[in-house]
Amino acid sequence: MADFRDVLREAANAAGLEITGGDSVVAAPQVEPDEMGNLSVVWEKDNLQVQVNQIEQGKRSLDCYLSVRELSGKMIKAPVRLNLFSASAVTGLIRILNDRKPLDWASRVDQVTMAVHRTMAARRQVGKIERRTGPIEQDWLVGPLFERNQHSLVVAPGGTGKSLLMLAFCGSLTGSRPLVPGVTYSNLDGGVLYLDWETNKEIHDMRMTQLVPDDADWPDVDYMRMASTIMDEVQYLNEYIVTHNIKLVIVDSIGMACGGDMNTQTDAIAYINACRALGEVTVVSITHPGWDVKRSTGSRYFENAARSCWRIEKQQDEGDQHSHIDLTHYKSNNGLIHKPFALGVVFGEKIAYIHADVSQSSKSAREQIREVMDVGTPMALKAIYEDLPDIAKPTISKTLERMVKDGEVKKTGRAEYQLEQVTISDIVGPEVDTTDSRQFDVKNREVDTNPSSKEEGRDSSASTLPAEPDTKGEEDEDDPLPDF
Known about the structure:
alpha+beta, 13 helices, single chain, 9-stranded mixed β-sheet, Arc Repressor Mutant, subunit A, Rossmann fold, 22 strands, 29% helix, 3 domains
């Protein structure tokens, strides 16, 4: 004798209905994630598709945009923001779906929730730390400023020209000419996205027009004018980055991108996590200095989380069409602190960056001490103090101790030192001549050692700046920057 439930199922199937009792079994759906983490959940036999987009998991939530339609295209439920961990929200959705198409929606929503949960868990990939083969070198996107797939911080007061400089780096990476000399450019293998909270597209169009020579190829830079915080937009930005193969993101600037109290660790960490959620991409965050003009405003976590921090200082007389900027590297997690370098900026119908000498105030304590001492001639500590009034005495003393340890300086008395015939290149390797006439082909990312092979007027050196031993803390020994 046939089971009553089997007879009931046969009758329901013949009538095109579905039994929704406790014993109902809904076939497992086909789950297809896309490259941005969105899910398509399909019950092909039932002619149904649930689309789940912009998934975000919190401590007590699993939020997403969920829509339901038939495979023929007929919409059953337009996209709605839903917390799949909320019993009331799920119950309300099931009630709406049952009113529009009677099915076992409770089981289907459970299947969707499990599929979303498994997808989120799969994102937490665990790998093994493995031995690297070959030379161990930093992978610079713009050397020695921005390391590939790392977060860098640029600190400068308003009006310094930091946004213009970042735009010039973007143009150098995506155009046919390097617009900033004295640095190296690597193959970008993708696009650039400039996120702007401070001005508008018209200003950046004008700036780029002034930066790019008329006979050069126009750079390919994506621009996005922002209004809400980066934390609110991170899901959309991640999708855009993946879809358009973005490899470099400029955030201009942290204060408005953060949108909260920059002095709190909570808002700083939220910003940092949002930057990490953008994916495998190089992020350069622009910010302003705080009460300590040499460091970023707000919580120290902004600096702690960045793998590299650079400070920009500007000198320009009123009405002068030429400015001077010094770039000082004051924090590095993945390598040495690099020597400061300088650029001249010439303003006119076109804007051009040129080589310049570093200002005395931007030189490290080690460099300034070397400059006031004569090789082989003992010099009293008191005399060094007097010759360097702008450097704190404890900083000079501790820097001299490091120089003695490195063999640069010999202690000849209780408070007397002598500069030895040794230079920084003996410690970290030979210095590269930044006046080298080599040309750098940004298009092919190759160095051409024959300048005559290019057209006249296309010279632009791109030599690597030498690294200096880590002098982190020499500028302010009483307030060292904590590591993250």
